[in-house]
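#help-structures

NK: newbie question. if I give both the sequence and a SMILES, will the prediction place the ligand too? trying with zinc ion
OV: yes, paste both and it writes out the complex. here, I ran yours:
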Amino acid sequence: MDSLKFGEHTTIRTPNGLKLSIWQKLRDLFINEWFSSIENSNKELFYRIFKTDVGLEPYFKNTPTSLVYYRSTLKLRTRNHRLPIETGRWIRTPQNERLCLNCNKLGDEYHYLFECSIFDNERKDLIKRYFYYRNPSTLKLQQLMNTTNKHELLKLFKMFKSFY
Ligand SMILES: [Zn+2]
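OV: that's the protein plus ligand as structure tokens.
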């Protein structure tokens, strides 16, 4: 319980104040542990690009009608897909050698969402040009993945679906 120290300047006057302090401390510890666990995981590289805080994702707050899109999104986020970045892991190919067979670039989610010509048609239909046309970046990927616009989310789900 060393990590539950409240510091010299914390004064707790009531039982409810103590409960609140313990609750806040445990919450802080959980968040620190959670960030640490995703920082140390190679498999979660894509996940940590867009998961910037603890809480329910916009996907699940802004419910599109079809469960198919949830399934696709969960598959992508847990890397339950057949993009080279994941299939290469299954056969222990070094990460930097898990390349797109079409472009010879790293075959990760970023590549297929923003770059790969295999998905040019889907990209034009489903993702705003702003994200991929000029200077695509992980920042834009983060913006796209954190959108709360239902129309944009629905299109993103369809894009994910085209990967399977
Ligand atoms: Zn490609």
